[in-house]
Amino acid sequence: MAAPEPPPPPVDGSKPLSGLLSGIAQAAYHGKTGITEELLRGQLYPEAAPEEFRALRAKMGGLLQSIASADMDLNQLEAFLTAQTKKQGGITADQAAVIAKFWKNHRMKIHESLVNQSRWDNVLKNVNWRVDLKSQSRHIDQINTPVAIVEMELGKNGQESEFLCLEFDEAKLRKQPPPELKLC
């Protein structure tokens, strides 16, 4: 009985293509400005002519953008890549396999990055609350009355946070309009 055949070696172009997809994703979705077309070509496809590499990069960037903007699951991705392999001037089956593997490994990070990039306003990072006794007031009869204090940390990832402090006394909680806001 003959020994089972070893699996075929990985396709020659799979590592450079995987690196290209990673470079495109780093530049487009993770804000790495140092990843340039020249760097990618020099590291991954040094033998390719600049125009040839530019066309490959544009094709892969367009495919990755389509896949990421639709946040394709694996079934959608398979259908999309199959259509791309059948299209004239599309991609090869080997390229489709590399793209599928790349998307499977990087989908969550790219999706999270797109969500973070699409936020225009601050997000709520943290909330703390407590009940205290009021120790200072303009009116003596308000001292030592309970107040609820809510502190919220607002900001974007990678930026300094702002803090918002809300103070509610019993009278304010019973009113219809929202309570006054005070900055901490």
Automatic annotation (TrEMBL):
InterPro entries found in the cross-reference section: COMM (IPR017920), COMMD1_N (IPR033776), Murr1 (IPR037351)
PROSITE patterns the record matches: COMM
Organism: Calidris pygmaea (Spoon-billed sandpiper)
COMM domain segment(s): 123-184
Pfam families with a match to the protein in the record: COMM_domain, COMMD1_N
Biological processes annotated in GO: copper ion homeostasis; negative regulation of protein localization to cell surface; negative regulation of sodium ion transmembrane transport; positive regulation of protein ubiquitination; regulation of proteasomal ubiquitin-dependent protein catabolic process
GO CC, alphabetical: endosome
CDD domains: Commd1_MURR1
Name of the protein in its database record: COMM domain-containing protein 1
PANTHER family on file: COMM DOMAIN-CONTAINING PROTEIN 1
UniProt similarity note: Belongs to the COMM domain-containing protein 1 family.
